[in-house]
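Protein folding task:
====================
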Amino acid sequence: MLLEYVSIAIFIAITTLIGVIAIVLGTIFGPKRPAGKKSMPYESGMNPIGPGTRRIPVRFYLIAVLFILFDIEVVFFIPWALVFNNFVQQGQGLFMLGEMLVFIAILLVGYAYAWKKGALEWD
C-alpha cells in the first residue's frame, strides 16, 4: 500500500534537493558586497527619492494575503453556479443551496474574525 507513494516521495526529495542546490549556488556565487548604485531601483528613469530598499509594514502583507485567500474562496461560486441548475432539475437544488449557505457562513465567520482582529485596518 505504501509502495504507491514512493513516486511522490521521490518527487518531493528531488524538488527539495533542487531548491537547496539553487540556494547554495546563489549563496556561493552571489554578490557579497552590493554597491549603492546596484541597490537603487529604476523603473521610470527618474532618480529615486529615499533609499532603494524600504521596509514595508507587515500589515500590507497581511491584507494582501487576506485578499488572495477570500478571492480564491469566492472563485468557488462560479462552478457552483454553473452546475446549480442541473441539480435543481434533479431535485437536489435545496441541498446544493444549503451547502453553499454553509460555505458562505464559513467565509463570513473568517471575514468577521479578521475584521474584529483589526487585520483590515490601514493606518
